[in-house]
């Protein structure tokens, strides 16, 4: 990530770099008005092949801005290559989620990949396979990727093939809660379970319901995590602070009748800095537990 909004002194502006393609999202009226100047500066500094505008965030409506996705400079003719922790993926800057890839999970994916070596891993809300494929590349015995998006799973399957791990990676299309319910009901148990959902709390009015969603997700995930196995839970809702997230995960464990210990609590990588006066800029929370 080149620019991370307020923490980098540019409120509402996100710029992600994919090699010679830049993807920019402007979520404030000021940054929207500066589009031309920003593109000129990026061209002068980095000489990109293309600059894509992913101005399709609903928050733009709060400032009277229309949503749009378009190529502002150059041309993009399809998915673009991404390399992370030695693994190769494809990202769709025009049609994928956010800017096409979630760079913020880079360090967490590396940690989970090492944890999964020699073990089976279930990656729920996989998107394009970031956690699961890196785990397979690091030596996981078998990986199943779960997502409701067929296009995302297609990109994940292509990435598995590109990284030479297709024989150990399976994709499963379905809704996360329903899949976890079904697999738990059928007696499945996994050594490593990853649940990395989209934001459950997009506004303060959703806080109570969203918090319950994290507790339910932790309960279902804990139910299918084997004894001695690892549950890796994440939240990207900036309205949910780290203490509340940890409380809901703990509640989910209690509801599942499980106990364990926290091995790691984490956030985003250093290219997603936190503003010292804006605690909500620490939006990504991760908890890795070993369950008894």
Automatic annotation (TrEMBL):
SUPFAM superfamilies: S-adenosyl-L-methionine-dependent methyltransferases. One of its GO terms (biological process) is methylation. Residues 82-252 form the S-adenosylmethionine-dependent methyltransferase domain. It comes from the Bacteria. One of its GO terms (molecular function) is methyltransferase activity. Keywords: Methyltransferase, S-adenosyl-L-methionine, Transferase. InterPro entries: SAM-dep_methyl-trfase, SAM-dependent_MTases_sf. It holds the Pfam family Methyltrans_SAM. This is SAM-dependent methyltransferase.
């Amino acid at each position: 990530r080149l620019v991370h909004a307020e923490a980098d002194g540019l409120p509402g502006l996100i710029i992600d770099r994919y090699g010679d393609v830049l993807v920019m999202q402007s979520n404030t009226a000021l940054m929207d008005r500066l589009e031309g100047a920003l593109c000129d500066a990026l061209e002068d500094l980095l000489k990109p092949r293309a600059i894509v505008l992913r101005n399709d965030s609903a928050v733009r409506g709060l400032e009277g801005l229309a949503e749009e996705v378009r190529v502002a400079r150059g041309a993009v003719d399809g998915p673009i290559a991404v390399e992370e922790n030695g693994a190769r993926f494809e990202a769709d800057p025009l049609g994928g989620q956010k800017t096409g890839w979630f760079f913020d999970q880079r360090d967490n994916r590396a940690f989970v990949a090492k944890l999964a070596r020699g073990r089976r891993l279930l990656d729920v809300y996989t998107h394009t396979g970031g956690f699961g494929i890196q785990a397979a590349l690091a030596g996981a015995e078998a990986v199943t990727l779960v997502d409701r998006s067929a296009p995302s799973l297609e990109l994940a399957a292509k990435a598995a093939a590109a990284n030479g791990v297709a024989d150990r990676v399976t994709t499963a299309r379905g809704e996360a809660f329903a899949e976890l319910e079904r697999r738990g009901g059928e007696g499945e148990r996994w050594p490593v379970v990853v649940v990395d959902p989209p934001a459950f709390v997009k506004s303060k009015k959703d806080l109570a319901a969203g918090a319950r969603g994290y507790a339910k997700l932790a309960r279902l995930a804990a139910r299918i995590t084997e004894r001695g196995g690892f549950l890796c839970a994440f939240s990207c809702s900036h309205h949910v602070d780290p203490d509340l997230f940890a409380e809901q995960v703990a509640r989910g464990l209690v509801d599942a009748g499980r106990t364990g210990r926290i091995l790691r609590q984490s956030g985003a990588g250093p290219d997603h800095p936190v503003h010292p006066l804006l605690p909500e800029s620490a939006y990504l929370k991760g908890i890795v537990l070993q369950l008894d």
